[in-house]
Specification:
The chain is an alpha+beta fold and 388 residues long. The protein has helices spanning 2-17, 91-105, 129-145, 151-165, 172-179, 219-240, 252-257, 264-289, 292-308, 315-325, 353-368, and strands at residues 23-32, 44-45, 47-60, 65-70, 75-80, 113-119, 184-189, 195-199, 205-215, 330-335, 341-349, 373-376, 384-385. It folds into 2 domains: 2-200 and 381-385, Ribosomal Protein S5, domain 2 (2-Layer Sandwich), CATH 3.30.230; 205-377, Alpha-Beta Plaits (2-Layer Sandwich), CATH 3.30.70. The chain contains 11 helices and 13 strands. It has a 6-stranded mixed β-sheet with strand order 5-4-6-3-1-13, sandwiched between helices. A 4-stranded antiparallel β-sheet has the order 10-11-9-12. Helix 2 (91-105) packs across helix 3, helix 4 (151-165) packs antiparallel against helix 5 (172-179) and helix 8 (264-289) packs antiparallel against helix 9. The longest helix is centred in the last third of the chain and has 26 residues, at 264-289. The chain starts with a helix and ends with a strand. 47% of the residues are buried. The structure holds 2-deoxy-2-fluoro-alpha-D-galactopyranose. This is Galactokinase. Keywords: ATP-binding, Carbohydrate metabolism, Cytoplasm, Galactose metabolism, Kinase, Magnesium, Metal-binding, Nucleotide-binding, Transferase. Its EC number is 2.7.1.6.
Length: 388
């Protein structure tokens, strides 16, 4: 599947610049098994890179200006690397400007380059196309100019680029895009950035994504608001339990004891965070034991928390999860990513996938008049150089 994308990107580069690329980079999107809205709350997450990618082709151009072409958008921009880097109205370019800005802030030496890229990661589906864009672009510049940047720092600088654009995201998306490994999920401790790989063996179940095909525009403001509410929650906890600095060191009862000292929203967000951090630990143990029904149950619980307490779901995502919950063949289902649209992640009994896909698509169309998109994803390697 990705061969077509890679060939398209390389031949577009050759036509545009009359030369073959010096470096070609593959940068994946990600899924997250469990641990949602927890990366910026110092918790654990369980994501993985997938086989949906952005392909970048690069060459040095011996000037101080870079030219970048987005094939899918039929758009391009040029940037003088000596100028101050600023946000523009062309939103997609800002993620890349943000990366260049990071490199300049950190004092890395690089010159002008030409770059062409193309993607098969659906945008706005909660598969983190923006992290793939930032990290793949940065990885390519690193390779082209032989910059001494460790993989984890590629992820951290990608995250800073996203903050610069305006989304105060955690580290999960960039980390999993860069550090992903074939057939492994990554348990990341988002407080220390320690991580370990676990086998992604779902035994009798297939991992399938249902894309609601909706993108409610609240996303950026609501995301930043959730972060702020969690900061408020943890500040109240600290004031009353001075030894606790993070939700992961807090019990549900401690949060409940502070119910009257928090706004209704802050209380609900805090309780969700404490419960979700515990669920990730249990989910990882269940996966290691091959207890997929236990893992699935935790995924359903996460969805309920995201919908009722964290309030980042929407009617379309709730309908998908509620419908699948009635199905014996679906062992786990939940919304995935930032929320307000995008995908659900689902574990479906092998052999039953096609029936469920067909029935859900028909019901989804009947209910919302919207086509349900479906992705069968493979857990794959993180950002890498492509060699033919
Ligand atoms: C978005 C963010 F970018 C991540 O950092 C993470 O918080 C996620 O939403 C929710 O778990 O993808």
């Amino acid at each position: 599947m990705n061969d077509i994308l890679i060939n398209k990107t390389i031949s577009f580069f050759e036509k545009s610049f009359g030369s073959t690329p010096q470096k070609t980079v593959l940068s994946p999107g990600r899924i997250n098994i469990i641990g949602e809205h927890i990366d910026y709350n110092d918790g654990y997450v369980l994501p993985a890179a997938i086989d949906k990618i952005i392909c970048f082709a690069f060459e040095k151009n011996n000037t101080n200006t870079s030219k970048i072409i987005a094939i899918d958008l039929d758009d391009e921009f040029e940037i003088d690397l000596d100028d101050e880097i600023q946000l523009t109205d062309k939103v997609w370019t800002n993620y890349l400007r943000g990366v260049i800005n990071q490199l300049k802030i950190k004092g890395f030496k690089f010159e002008g380059f030409n770059c062409v890229f193309s993607s098969n990661i659906p945008v706005g589906s909660g598969l983190s196309s923006s992290a793939a864009l930032e990290c793949g672009f940065l990885f390519g510049i690193r390779e082209l100019f032989d910059l001494n940047i460790k993989p984890v720092d590629v992820a951290l600088m990608g995250q800073s680029a996203e903050h610069w654009v305006g989304i105060n995201c955690g580290i999960m998306d960039q980390f999993s895009s860069v550090m992903g490994k074939e057939n492994k999920v990554i348990k990341i401790d988002c407080r220390t950035l320690e991580y370990e790989y676990h086998d992604a063996n779902f035994i009798d179940y297939s991992l399938i994504l249902f894309d609601s095909n909706v993108k409610h525009s609240l996303m950026t403001s609501a995301y930043n608001e959730r972060r702020q509410q969690c900061d408020e929650g943890i500040a109240t906890i600290k004031k009353n339990y001075p030894k606790i600095t993070s939700f992961r060191d807090c019990t549900e009862n401690q949060v409940i004891s502070l119910k009257d000292k928090m706004s209704k929203e802050v209380f609900k967000r805090s309780l969700f965070a404490v419960k979700e951090i515990k669920r990730v630990i249990l989910a990882c143990e269940a996966l290691d034991k091959g207890d997929i029904p236990a893992l699935g149950k935790l995924m359903f619980e996460t969805h309920k928390g995201l919908s009722e307490d964290y309030e980042v779901s929407c009617d379309e995502l709730d309908m998908i999860v509620d419908t699948l919950k009635q199905e014996e063949a679906v062992i786990g289902s939940r919304m995935m990513g930032g929320g307000f649209g995008g995908c659900t992640i689902n574990l479906i009994k092998k052999g039953q996938e096609e029936r469920i896909k067909k029935q859900l698509s028909a019901l989804y169309m009947e209910t919302f008049g919207i086509e349900l998109k479906i992705y069968d994803v493979k857990i794959s390697n993180g950002t890498s150089l492509y060699t033919a």
